[in-house]
Write a structure and sequence with these properties.
mainly beta; 5-stranded mixed beta sheet; 4-stranded antiparallel beta sheet; 8% helix; Hsp20/alpha crystallin family protein; Small_HSP; A-crystallin/Hsp20_dom
Length: 144
């Protein structure tokens, strides 16, 4: 139900980790995620540790879901001397092409402990349903 839109995204992520580069609004870093089906919904879980909820943007246009987040530097006092800085800062983004069988009008989002969870229900029209068989004279056969 989900399609990857950028085959080089993982290579970019590894390069950014090795070089210590941060994402910008024009070239954001990748957001690690899991996606799975749970009952009648697809669940997407993204790691965004250290990001406040007001720094997360979730948009859906047609079938393209975009999640963008920014981890900003923490304000430090003038007398603080940084000894080690490994936590990435900057902009993180992920785009997913959603199938037509998902109901993009009813997406829900929760954010807890640095994890963003999106639930996308399967559209009613895409769920399996029984089709009544006619008798050939325009009337439906009633089975008991």
């Amino acid at each position: 139900m989900l399609m990857r839109t950028d085959p080089f995204r993982e290579l970019d992520r590894l390069t950014q980790q090795m070089l210590g580069t941060t994402g910008t609004w024009s070239r954001p870093s990748a957001v690690p995620m899991d996606a799975y089906r749970e009952g009648d919904a697809y669940v997407i879980v993204m790691d965004l540790p250290g990001v406040s909820t007001d720094a997360i943007d979730i948009d859906v246009e047609r079938n393209m879901l975009t999640v963008k987040a920014e981890r900003r530097p923490v304000a430090k006092a003038d007398d603080v001397q940084m000894e080690l800085s490994e936590r990435p800062l900057g902009v993180f983004s992920r785009q997913l092409m959603l199938a037509d069988t998902l109901d993009t009008e009813k997406i829900t989002a929760d954010y807890e402990a640095g994890v963003l969870t999106l639930r996308i229900p399967i559209a009613e029209r895409a769920k399996p349903r029984k089709i009544a068989i006619g008798r050939g004279d325009g009337r439906r056969q009633i089975s008991g």
